[in-house]
Structure formats: structure tokens, C-alpha cells
């Protein structure tokens, strides 16, 4: 009666979640969220108060700010911010940051 097809090896939940998140479409979405969240974690709460929207597309991070002086100030350090965010997420995903 015992059939080898009915026997399952227990798998740690960590491995199951990695398999699920590892699917291409889901992996891309999770990575986009991590990158967008990294903006706030790197620049801090003060800048986040003036941030309207953050989105990531085609290796470009688009950040919408509602403070022209802050936008001007941040524009001088975009290369540094790009490097800091890439370091924070642990990969070179962002090639450019565009402030709008």
C-alpha cells in the first residue's frame, strides 16, 4: 500500500519561501520594492518627508520630490547616493537616479 509518490521530505520554510520568491516575476517585483525602500533608508526621515513617489524601472530610480531646494541640493550628490543605495541593497541595480 505504501507508495513512494506519497512520501514527502520535509523542507524548511526558508527554502520553500526562497523557491517562491525565486520565481522570475515575483523576484523582480520584490527587488523593485527593496530598491524603492532603500531610498528612504539611505536618505533618512527628513528627506522622506519631501518625497512624494519612488519608483524603479530599467535600472533608473525615479524620485519625485515636492521641494525645489532639496531637489537642487540632492542633484549635486546623485552619484554618491547611487553608490550608497547600491551598497545598501548589495548589488549594482541602479545606474542612475532621476529627481522629478
Describe the structure.
- The chain is of the alpha+beta class.
- 53% of the residues lie in helices and 17% in strands.
- The protein has a single domain, classed as 2-Layer Sandwich (GMP Synthetase, Chain A, domain 3), CATH 3.30.300.
- It contains five helices and three strands, in the order αααββααβ.
- A three-stranded mixed beta sheet has the order 1-2-3, with helices on one face.
- Helix 2 crosses helix 5.
- The longest helix has 20 residues.
- The chain is elongated and about 65 Å long.
Helices and strands, with pairings:
Layout: H1 13-21, H2 24-43, H3 45-48, E1 51-57, E2 60-65, H4 68-75, H5 78-89, E3 96-99
Parallel strand pairs: 2-3
Antiparallel strand pairs: 1-2
Can you give the mean pLDDT? 85
Summarize the main sheet: 3 strands, mixed
Helix percentage range? 40-55%
The percent range for strand residues is 15-25%
Query: Would you count the extended β strands for me?
Result: 3
If you consult CATH, what is the topology? GMP Synthetase, Chain A, domain 3
Structural class by SSE content: alpha+beta
Named CATH architecture:
2-Layer Sandwich
CATH class: Alpha Beta
What gross morphology would you assign? elongated
Number of structural units classed as domains? 1
End-to-end gap? 67 Å
Tell me the strand order in the biggest sheet. 1-2-3
Low-confidence stretches: none
Q: Number of DSSP helices? A: 5
- SSE succession: HHHEEHHE
Q: Rg from C-alpha positions? A: 20 Å
Amino acid at each position: 500500500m505504501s507508495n513512494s509518490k506519497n512520501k514527502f521530505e520535509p523542507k524548511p520554510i526558508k527554502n520553500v519561501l526562497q523557491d517562491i520568491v525565486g520565481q522570475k516575476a515575483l523576484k523582480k517585483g520584490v527587488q523593485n520594492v527593496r530598491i524603492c525602500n532603500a531610498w528612504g533608508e539611505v536618505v533618512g526621515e527628513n528627506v522622506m518627508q519631501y518625497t512624494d513617489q519612488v519608483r524603479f524601472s530599467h535600472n533608473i530610480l525615479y524620485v519625485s520630490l515636492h521641494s525645489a531646494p532639496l531637489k537642487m541640493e540632492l542633484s549635486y550628490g546623485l552619484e554618491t547616493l547611487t553608490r550608497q543605495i547600491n551598497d545598501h541593497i548589495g548589488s549594482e541595480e541602479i545606474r542612475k537616479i532621476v529627481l522629478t
